[in-house]
Amino acid sequence: MKDALFGGINAAVLTAMKPDFTPDLDRMAKHAKWLLANGCNGLGIMGTTGEANSFGLHERKQILEGLIARGVPASVMMPGTGCASLADTVELTIHAREQGCRGVLLLPPFYYKGPSDDGLFAYFDAVAKRVGGGIALYLYHFPQQSAVPFSLSLIGRLLDAHPGVFKGVKDSSGDYANMKAMIDAFASRGFEVYSGSDEFVQKILAEGGAGCITAASNCNSHWGGIVYAKRTGPEADAAQAMLTATRRAATAVPLIPGLREIIARSTGDDGWRVIRPPHLPLSKEDGDKAWATWQATGALPLPGMPAVKQAAE
């Protein structure tokens, strides 16, 4: 897809934290800049991987403002602003627009299960009207986590009611047939479809999608950048194979603490292991398993990141 606002490789960025669980903005900004220098076109902050729903409204604003103040461009960031509360969703979305972000990622209202498409339409219609334009709205389809899927008919209704406002979707379902159905139905209307699964990057780009927004991009973005630049051919195929292998490595242990463990060992920075409850850091056994699984892919040491001797110990 040409002219996609966030076309390419977008990392679902981990949120660095201090020992007291407050955001560590210096550490997070450093990581964000490394990602942009090593294959990422954009950054999804405050999503699932960033533990958005473990942070309060004011903390989420603080994180966005803090990254911008530390030199991470607002234009490359897609903050997650979808909350169970309509008012909070609107407030965070307007805040992102005021900071200079071009788009936001919206979870559906996830607390009440089994809402009708009419109910979901009413929610997102209200969000769009209260925000009042000036920022692209992306839907976050992750039914395994939210338990609230987006149907094709709902997406079509939102596009009809708000042309040019609902710009795309991140599909983290792992169901490529669903991604392809959204491409087939809506790509001709400029609707951008992003895979939440690294193994589909090359395929979705070839079939009219816009790219990916993925957790494993925190560590494998170097190869994602190759796939996005080359698309086809031996180099792209080899890079896609690495994306697939590292995605499987990332999910061999609990995903979010596992990625933190890989970055902690790769950088020698133990601070990356800090995670907010109810998540917990990996045990020593699972940490060793995560490291060994990533080593088996050939991805370590991470390109662009100095090797650390103690990381392998």
Topology of this protein?
Layout: E1 8-12, H1 25-37, E2 42-45, H2 57-69, E3 77-79, H3 86-99, E4 103-106, H4 117-131, E5 136-141, H5 143-146, H6 152-161, E6 166-171, H7 176-186, E7 192-195, H8 201-206, E8 211-214, H9 217-230, H10 234-250, H11 255-267, H12 284-297
Parallel strand pairs: 1-2, 1-8, 2-3, 4-5, 5-6, 6-7, 7-8
Descriptors:
about 45% helix, about 325 residues, 4-hydroxy-tetrahydrodipicolinate synthase activity, about 10% strand, TIM Barrel, 8 strands, alpha/beta, DapA-like, eight-stranded parallel sheet
Description:
This protein has about 325 residues and is of the alpha/beta class. It has twelve helices and eight strands. It has an eight-stranded parallel sheet with strand order 3-2-1-8-7-6-5-4. Strand 2, helix 2 and strand 3 form a beta-alpha-beta unit. It is globular, with a radius of gyration of 18 Å.
